[in-house]
Amino acid sequence: MTTLVVCLDRTDDVGRKTGLQSPIVGWEAVRALVTDIGLADPEDSGVNTLLETLRVGQNLRDENEEAIVAVVSGDRESMVSADRAVARQLDDLIAQHDPDSAVVVIDSGEDERLVPIVESRVQVDSVDRVVVRQARDIESTYYLLKQFLADEELRQTILVPLGLTLLVFPILAMVVAPAEGAAAITTVIGLFLLYKGFSIDEIITGFAHQVRESLYSGQVSVVTYVVAAGLTLVGFFVGALGVSNLDGSTGIGIPAVQFAFDSVPWLTMAGLTASAGRLLDEIIGEDPVRRSYLNLPFIAVAVGLVIRGFSAYFLEQQQLLSSIAVVETELGPLTVEGFSLAPGERLAVFVISAILVSLIGAWIATAVSSSDDDSTPGSGSGPGTGDGNPGTRPQSELTDGGPGSNQLASTTPPSADVEVVTDADSTEFSNGETETGQHAGSGSSDTRADSNTDSELESEGGGESDDGREHTQTAASEHEAEDR
């Protein structure tokens, strides 16, 4: 069993301090690297990480396991380029050594973000986090503060918000009441903590990257998303107008229902437009259309019908919405009398319509998925096969020594091989009739090695040996006559 003990360095401290290019592979190479980094920066925790890597590799070797010690570093340009550099080096290591598993050694949360990259390529049995023990005295505290102030990322994350808070609070205290100023500052700090806690900056960066990739690839969904955003704004605006027309003494529930009733048609169209664009991208692409994308437009319409029906029911109960009335209609000899739907009947119509729309979407998605599965190559029976898996039986007939290989061996005439071998031997040995005949007999026996019956093997081998001896004796007699 081969285990890859890899030390991860996302910020490329190894290359920056030693000038070496990663990956660095081998016990002696990593051991020499410990000395180089220790001389360049004795205070760096990376020295302890490298020593831990060597210790883990030594323990695995003591357990009679093959351990490959390596150091993988990222890039200093950006986090994306660093992750890609680590992934590329891991691919090279795996292709060269083919490890069965890996043990990852890290010393910081920054390096821990590389663990999923390793897990996507090889099985990770353990993640070894190195924590350096330090003295808890005043001097070490001062040293930690000094190191903290020297870190640019930590300064921007902690010192800048703290400085802004101390700067804004006196200004707010002079303009407004101190309590209101403290409340405003607390709100801003809370929003900042939520921003960092939920990694909103990374989400925004990923969204911008996805939008850029969509624009470069020419996806239809980019346009439909913009249209959907516009329809969403229109829906919010229409809902706000509907709420503004209500009486102010209606409380909170009725305005919320009125907002939902007025905005749901526009929001449903926005969802339908966005899902249709995503579905078009799937249809244009080379991969089969997934079932979820086929069903998504119908789900959007069904949800819109349900919300519209319930909001209309509540508004009609409050007499803020009139009932649906159907006027009298004449269709030739038929006359449809006018009627109006009660609130419950109206709600039932919307709910039943939503269920029908969702069922239609599920049926279409199932039908399209079934047709894609039937048209997939290799799913049905092909010509020349006895089952529904084409290509399997021809391969087994040629490779696994089954009936097909025996049949091919039986169709080969053994006498041709015996005759060729006998002629060649007779030209080389003029006085070796017996040896040539024995060789011919053994050749015929090898030719019949794939026969199914042992008795047939012996009889055929013996008969062909006699024929080979007679042919050899005849050739030798003719050769002696020519010599005389």
UniProtKB/TrEMBL annotation:
<feature type="region of interest" description="Disordered">
    <location>
        <begin position="370"/>
        <end position="484"/>
    </location>
</feature>
<feature type="transmembrane region" description="Helical">
    <location>
        <begin position="347"/>
        <end position="368"/>
    </location>
</feature>
<feature type="compositionally biased region" description="Acidic residues">
    <location>
        <begin position="453"/>
        <end position="465"/>
    </location>
</feature>
<feature type="compositionally biased region" description="Basic and acidic residues">
    <location>
        <begin position="466"/>
        <end position="484"/>
    </location>
</feature>
<dbReference type="Pfam" id="PF04123">
    <property type="entry name" value="DUF373"/>
</dbReference>
<protein>
    <recommendedName>
        <fullName>DUF373 family protein</fullName>
    </recommendedName>
</protein>
<feature type="transmembrane region" description="Helical">
    <location>
        <begin position="263"/>
        <end position="281"/>
    </location>
</feature>
<keyword id="KW-0472">Membrane</keyword>
<feature type="transmembrane region" description="Helical">
    <location>
        <begin position="293"/>
        <end position="315"/>
    </location>
</feature>
<feature type="transmembrane region" description="Helical">
    <location>
        <begin position="158"/>
        <end position="176"/>
    </location>
</feature>
<keyword id="KW-0812">Transmembrane</keyword>
<keyword id="KW-1133">Transmembrane helix</keyword>
<feature type="transmembrane region" description="Helical">
    <location>
        <begin position="182"/>
        <end position="199"/>
    </location>
</feature>
<feature type="compositionally biased region" description="Polar residues">
    <location>
        <begin position="427"/>
        <end position="452"/>
    </location>
</feature>
<feature type="compositionally biased region" description="Polar residues">
    <location>
        <begin position="405"/>
        <end position="414"/>
    </location>
</feature>
<dbReference type="InterPro" id="IPR007254">
    <property type="entry name" value="DUF373"/>
</dbReference>
<feature type="transmembrane region" description="Helical">
    <location>
        <begin position="220"/>
        <end position="243"/>
    </location>
</feature>
<feature type="compositionally biased region" description="Gly residues">
    <location>
        <begin position="379"/>
        <end position="389"/>
    </location>
</feature>
